[in-house]
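User: Can you fold this complex?
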Amino acid sequence: MSNVLYDEPGPRARRRALVGTVISLVVIAFLVYVALSRLADRGQFSMDLWGPLIDPSNEVFSQVWELLFEGLRNTVVAAVLAIALSLVLGTVLGSARMMLGRWQRLPLVGLIELFRGLPVVVTIFYVYILAQSTDVDISWLPGEDGLWYLVIGLTLYNSVIIAEILRAGVASLPRGQREAALAVGMTPRQTMATVLLPQAFRTMLPALISQLVVILKDTSIVAVLGLYTELLRQGNLIALNLDNPIQVLFVVGVIFILLNYSLSRLAVWVERWLSRARGGTSAMQAAEGAVAQT
Amino acid sequence: VDPVLDNLDLYWSGFLRSLGICLWAMVGSLLLGTLIAAFRVSPVASLRGFGTAWVTLLRNCPLTVVLFFMAFGLPEIGINFSYYVFGVGALILYTSAFVCEAVRSGINSVQAGQAEAARAIGLTFTQSLRDIVLPQALRSSIPPVGSVIIAMFKNSAIVGAFGVGQDLWTVGKNLSSAQGYDALPVFTGVAIGYLCITLTAGALLALAERRLEVAR
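Assistant: Here's the predicted assembly.
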C-alpha cells in the first residue's frame, strides 16, 4: 500500500480502520442486495432467460453456444490479423520516421498525427465508405468484406501507435549503441534493423502487449456500426431473438474480461521478468511514458 | 453544391453537441475516477477491494459492452433514460477506471522521503498531506490523466456512432442517407470535426506538460 499518505497505524487508527471496513462492507452488501432484489423482482433470474446459456438440456443451448463461439472466433481472427498487420506496418512507419531527415519525414509525421487523432470508429467507418464510393475491390481478400473494413481501420490506428512506442523504445537506448554500430561500418538501415529495433522491441514489450489488449477490445467497436459479426454483435443478435439482453451481454462481458485480463497479466509478468533480467526499472518507466491507451 | 460548406450550421450544432458529450463525460469520469482512486489508497480494506474490482472489471471490458449493457440491459429492469444519458454514463463508468489508475500512479510517484521529511520537521498529518504530498501527486498525475481524457474524447465517437441524436455523427448520417449527399465528403466533415476536438485537446495537454516541467 502507498505509505506516503499515512503513518504506521497505531492501535486507535487500526480500530478506526476496522470500523470503517465493517461499515463500508455493510454499505456495499446493501447496494448489492438492492441490485439483486431489483433483478429478482423483474424475473431476471428465471431459467427462461438463463436456460439457453447455462442449461445444457435446454433446446437452444448448443445452438446459442455455437453462435457465441463463432462470434468469438471472428473476434479473435480480426484481432490477430489487425495485430500482425499493425506490428509490421508500425515497425516500417516507426523506423522510416527515425531514419528520414527532418524535412523528408514531415509528411510521415503528419500522417501519424492524423491517424493518432482520429477516433478508431471514424477510421473504420471511413474505410467502409471509401470502399463503397470508390471502385476499390477488396472481395479478393479471404473472409467477408466487413472483416477487412475492421482490420484495415484498426491497423491504420494501431500501427501509428506502435510506431510511436518503438520510437520511444529506441530513444530510451543509450546513444552509444547507434554510434558503435555506425562506427564499425554498418549502414543506417543495418543499424536500425539489427541493433536498435531488436532492443527497442524488448524494452517496449510490456507496452506492446498492452496495446494488444486495446486492439482486442477495439474489435467490438464494429458492433456499433454493424459491419461484421464479431462476439458482441453476435451476442446482440442472440439477445434480440431470445429477448434476454442482460444475460447474454453478461456472458459476452465475462468472456471479454477473461481474455483481456489474462493478456494484461501476461504484460505485467513480462514487465517483471524484463526488469529482473536487467535489474533496473528504466524500461518500465519508458514504457509507462509511451502508453496512454484506454 | 458542397455537402459540407452548405451545411456548416448543421455541422456546428452537431459539433457543439459532441463537445457537450465530451465535457459531461470528462467532469463525471474525473470525479468518479478520483473517488475510486481514493478508495484504492484508503486504509479501509473493503474499500480497497471494491476499488480494485471496479478497475479490473472496467479496464478489461470493451466500452461497447458497457454501452450495450446500459442501453439494452437496464431498460429490462425498469431503468429508462435517453440514449444520451446512457451513452455519457457508459463513457463515465469506463473512463473512471483509467482515471483512477492515472491518479493512483501520481500518488505513488511521490517519494516516501517527502512525507517522512514533512513529519520530521513537525508538520501534522493534515499539513503534510495538504502542503507536501497532494500538490506533488496532483502535478505528476496531470500528464497521464490528460492522455486518458483525450482517449475518452476519441471514445465519445463510439457513443455518437451508437446514436445519441443531434451530434456530429447523426448529422453525417442524416446528410448522407436522408438528404442523399455523397457519404465520402460528408464523413470527411465529421472526421474533421472530431480532429478539431482531439488535436486541440492534445495541444493543450502538451502546453500544460511543458509549463509543469518548467515549474519543477
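Chain A touches chain B through 60 residues (CB under 8 Å). Confidence is low (pLDDT under 50) at residues 286-293 of chain A.
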